[in-house]
């Protein structure tokens, strides 16, 4: 009996593995075909000045669409894209679309800064900086309207490589934001060593700050740290009015979250610009 059970369990387990394997294969195929057919989609989530709630920028967030026309979120495919090296082509598509979009908005009279997420893997691509420079030039977007968002952990992967890459990028005139700030466990000294302009307070701290005094303390500390280093601060995950009020109290300049806007396709964002 035990043997039978064991065998059943084994069968179940192997089905599960097979399922996972197939799932990965189909996601990888979707990434590949989306790249080949120019079907990488970019959603834009507005960033607002907390005081006036005026839109000052957007974050570009990649989306894929499966064969049933359903939107697939980054959590489902970014790790696999990183493992397979497809992140480079995917990231290039996002950067390109973002620069052209922001140039279009600028031509309509709206200075909207566009922030693009960059994986650590892309930093190891020797050609990355050239690609950014080329894309800025081709699109005609002034470099001060481009921001690159990098996580703390991505910065720490290879200190020397990252440092020279960030310096080369900063020379282009774009800005660098540290994403999910406070969730990495690196020393703060890199803030002096790297050309960083913006800290994005991780959304977990903003979400919990009204119910958990530690999260509140972290948001306060990050805000005062940013101010003393003359860095701009963006609060992520602003979902409620009380978050907004508290963040304004703390002197936090910019915010992003469902309270203001969700990520949306470009056509929808275009309609907000009037
Ligand atoms: P992130 O860069 O920290 O982006 C913020 C995420 O929080 C987005 O999820 C956004 O939709 C979500 N969000 C915004 N406001 C709120 C809110 O008020 N409440 C909650 N609960 N969530 C909110 P999304 O689009 O699913 O992206 C997830 C992550 O995937 C991003 O986190 C980023 O790390 C990564 N990612 C997205 N696009 C790209 C890309 O083009 N390249 C790379 N390498 N990574 C990307
Ligand atoms: Mg981001
Ligand atoms: Mg700078
Ligand atoms: Mg984040």
UniProtKB/TrEMBL annotation:
Ranges for domain EAL: 24-274
Signal peptide residue numbers: none
Top-rank taxon, per record: Bacteria
Record protein name field: EAL domain-containing protein
Organism, as annotated: Pseudoalteromonas lipolytica
